[in-house]
C-alpha cells in the first residue's frame, strides 16, 4: 500500500522518522551503558552538566537537559540523597537553588564519562570528518528552527 | 570550565546531543498534537503502520515502531478495546497474532495524519531540498551503523 502526501512532505516525514530512530538507537546504547553503572540518563545528565559547566540553578539544568521541572526535582532529590551534589539557596533568587557537584559526584562522572565519550565517538565513526560537520550543522539548523 | 576528549570525540558528542535534542523537540511537538486528539505516540505509531503498510504481526510492529514487546502488548490491548484494530491468530505461527486496522481505526488516522504530515513538513522547512536529502542520507548512515 503506497500513499503519498507530496514528495517534499514524504521526504520530511522519512527524515524525521530516521532522525528519531537513529537518536533512539544511540540513546538506548547510552542507557544500557549507564545502567551498568547504576545511573539513569537524567542522573547522568545532571551530574555531567554540573561537572563540565560548573554550578547551575535548577532552571538552567532543566533547560540544558531538556527535562521537565517535575522530573528534575526527583532526580535532584536522589542525587542529594546519594551525596553526589549539594544545593544552596540562590542569593539572587530566594525561590531558586544553585547546585554543585561534590567530590563523590565528580568521581562518578570521572569513572563513567571517558567510556561514554568513546561510545559516542564510535556511534559517529561511520561518518567522515566532513560528513560529521555537515550533519552537525544540518541538525543544528533543524534544532534552532523548532 | 572547558574539557576536551579530543577534537573528533568532542564533535561526535556535540552531534549526538544535537541529534537527540532536535529529535526530542520534534517528538514533543508531535506528542502535543496527538494528545489533542486523545492519542499516545505508541497508539498512533501502531495505527499508522497498520494503515500505511497493511496487516502485520506484533513482532514486525514492535520492530517498526522501535518499541518493546511489553509496551506494544499494552498498546495493542487498548487499541482492540477501542475497536480500532482487530487481531487473528497467525496461521503460520500459533503463538503470534496478525493485526488489522478497522474502519473505525482508519477514520482516526485519516482525521489525524494529514495535519501530522504537515507538521513534519514544517519541522524540516528550514532545509533546502538538497540539505534535506543530505540530512536523510547522513542520519540513515548513522542509523545503519548503530
Automatic annotation (TrEMBL), chains A, B:
SUPFAM superfamilies found in the cross-reference section: Winged helix' DNA-binding domain
Coiled coil: none
Superkingdom, taxonomy of origin: Bacteria
Gene Ontology biological process terms in this record: response to stress
Keywords assigned: DNA-binding, Transcription, Transcription regulation
One MF term in the entry's GO annotations: DNA binding
Name by which UniProt lists this protein: Transcriptional regulator, MarR family
Lineage: Bacteria, Pseudomonadati, Campylobacterota, Epsilonproteobacteria, Campylobacterales
